[in-house]
Amino acid sequence: MMRKIYSVALLAISLLSAQPSHQEIADKITRKGLEDLYAFEMLEDLTQYGHRFSGTPGYDKAVQWAEQKLKEVGADSVWLQPVVVPHWVRGNPEKAVATIGKKKIDLSVCALGGSVATPKNGITAEVIEVKSLAEAKQLGERAKGKIIFYNRPFDKTKINPFEAYGGAVDQRSRGAIEAAKVGAVAVLVRSMTNAIYKVPHTGAMRYADTVAKIPAAAISTMDANYLSDELQKGSKVSVTLTMDCTTLPEVQTYSVIGEIRGTEYPNEIVLIGGHLDSWDRGTGAHDDGSGVVQCIDVLRLMHELQLKPKRTIRCVLFANEENGLRGARAYAKNIDTMKEKHIVAIESDAGGFSPRGFGVEADSVRFLKIASFASLLENIGADRIRMGGGGADISVLEKFGTVLIGLSPDPQRYFDYHHTDIDTIDKVHPRELQLGAIAIAILTWALAQEGV
Ligand SMILES: [Zn+2]
Fold this sequence. Notes:
By secondary structure, the chain is of the alpha/beta class. The chain folds into two domains: 21-88 and 249-450, Zn peptidases (Aminopeptidase, 3-Layer(aba) Sandwich); 91-244, Glucose Oxidase, domain 1, CATH 3.50.30. The protein is 35% helix and 25% strand. It has helices spanning 2-18, 22-36, 38-47, 57-72, 133-139, 161-168, 170-181, 221-232, 285-304, 326-333, 364-371, 414-417, 430-450, and strands at 77-89, 95-100, 103-107, 109-111, 123-130, 147-150, 186-190, 216-219, 237-242, 246-260, 265-275, 311-318, 341-347, 355-361, 384-387, 403-409. Strands 1-10-12-11-13-16-14-15 form an eight-stranded mixed beta sheet, sandwiched between helices. The protein has an eight-stranded mixed beta sheet with strand order 3-2-9-5-6-7-8-4. Strand 5 (123-130), helix 5 and strand 6 form a beta-alpha-beta unit. The longest helix has 21 residues, at 430-450. Bound molecules: zinc ion. Zinc ion binds at residues 275, 287-288, 321, 349.
């Protein structure tokens, strides 16, 4: 009898040790990912449709592509989630001409997303420069009939440009509201970047129902510096701004979802995601084509390596992150908390650059558990796991107690391309992009096996 128990125990031990360790699986994922560089191949496909702005045919094509691709890479089930999205149209190219004394200078501008148009012949007005919303408020009567020019640059001393973005973006999102309150007729906002060039950056802006809706445009950093120098010299600067944008009726479209069912805890969800839409400039290669193909590639790697996760891995490609967050809201609304629990969500929406680690929004116990997986990410240099993170789309899951995680790639070049004509595939490096997919796959695997 004793001998029998002994041999059963031995058998159990040998079976247990036959299970590959997380490190062995991480190594397999890395090798396979680098061998195929499939994320980049997908990004080439996805970006061939042009931009994927909400409400446009380009977005609809991306939906079809993503649905097909998720099936192709081996998701157990794939479905579309209906979302109603805004439909703003830029119209004819924007124009801005500065008049300084006898000189007339063309400025590089683009309408901010959601802006109203100018009258057909444009708005011509004197320009007043401010560095903040508070300064705009203080202008009082002096702002009447003027164009307010918000020109607070990124804080260059911030090591992480995402922090500098956070410190400057109120000018873009709320600038038109504060300017309208003091009677301004339009706003020009310095583009959200550290780079100095002639490329304007679009992005979301808001209006308030209580004040006039005035046209809002981004101006390139080089032109912003030029205007600022002239104003500092005491020149009188006026600008004629012409914009043709309109807001059309809302459109019904979809987020795209695919998953691999968990073998032991199928109702516990490890969500991975990015947003399928982009701005209507460039082709959204970094923002957020990269996140989309990385998340699809996680399912592909699991499937091809025949990894069977204990918990469900669900890839969600959200509609309309850029100008409404409607996809994320629709997703949160449709969660049936009786049937499933989202234990953790990982978002990739910070560009397809070399992964450095992950930012984690969780209590300290769960943070430490996730941080304990850092060693699995060491080989690919993505082992920096820090407190604080997440992302716009997954933020809607916070109320369910979900742990929120954001992939943190090298942040230095993201805002060179963000929301511009030059966010195109040639700015994405196949290996860097792939390493991001590998990092997400490794962490996703560990979380799907161990929970949190
Ligand atoms: Zn994005």
